[in-house]
TrEMBL record:
Gene3D superfamilies: Immunoglobulins. It comes from Tichowtungia aerotolerans. PROSITE patterns: EF_HAND_1, FN3. CDD domains: FN3. Residues 8-109 form the Fibronectin type-III domain. This is Fibronectin type-III domain-containing protein.
């Protein structure tokens, strides 16, 4: 069955003021030639552009009557959208086109220091007070690590903490990514173990890798047969 050839061109449009940036894309396509049953489409009246955040599941659609393209505006950062289109001749429609997807960029980082502009502005009021190696609160955790961990770079007592309970279990709080600078981002954790700080050979603890943070307490019991050693967490953003 001949399906609509679906072609997309994307243009990222930014407003003049950095904190009011908006994302837009232009989606273009070519008309289908046959109906969903394989019969010729005699006259094209309009198109339906379907889209959603999950492949094969389209929660929205736009009816387009004046051409083979449409512009979508005010899209969210770091979100993936899936698209397909149907060509319509009155009540008769073509089959779905092939599906294509597009992922919006992450929050802007105008000075390329690893800190999103919104996060820097929220805590520091400008893009010039913090950078990839600064430690604004002097607690030994640099501002880039505070951004990744979701801690307050102006509060020396707020830092990632790994604890050990009286029964020997290792635990930590997995802070969900949210707030200024984290739109549609996911914070993840992994727990590492090393038998020697001098050697610095850290290995992932089984079943404690790629833990998605949902504001939950993560606990890892230490098996009796595991060699004594040291633990640390790694925190990263997707």
């Amino acid at each position: 069955m001949l399906k609509t050839i679906f072609r997309m061109t994307f243009g990222i449009i930014f407003a003049a003021v950095w904190f009011c940036e908006a994302i837009s894309i232009t989606v273009e396509w070519e008309p289908a030639q046959t109906t969903v049953n394989g019969d010729p489409l005699e006259e094209i009246h309009y198109y339906k552009l379907f889209y959603g955040t999950t492949s094969g599941r389209y929660t929205d659609y736009i009816t387009v009557t004046n051409g083979t393209s449409v512009r979508l505006t005010d899209l969210e950062y770091n979100k993936t959208l899936y698209f397909c289109v149907r060509t319509c001749s009155g009540p008769v429609e073509s089959d779905y086109s092939e599906e294509l997807f597009w992922t919006a960029p992450v929050m802007p980082d105008s000075d390329f220091d690893g800190l999103s502009d919104d996060w820097e502005t929220f805590y520091f009021g400008s893009l010039h007070r913090a950078g990839s190696s600064t430690d604004s609160d002097g607690n030994g955790v640099i501002d880039l690590e505070e951004f990744i961990a979701g801690t307050d770079p102006m509060n020396p007592s707020d830092r990632p903490i790994l604890r050990i309970s009286p029964d020997g279990a290792v635990y930590f709080f997995a802070e969900k990514a949210g707030g200024s600078g984290y739109e549609n981002r996911t914070r993840k954790y992994r727990l590492l173990h090393s038998s020697s700080l001098a050697e610095g050979n850290w290995t992932p603890v089984p079943d404690m890798d790629d833990i998605q943070a949902e504001n939950q307490l993560v606990t890892c019991g230490v098996p009796m047969d595991r060699a004594p050693g040291y633990y640390r967490t790694e925190i990263y953003l997707d």
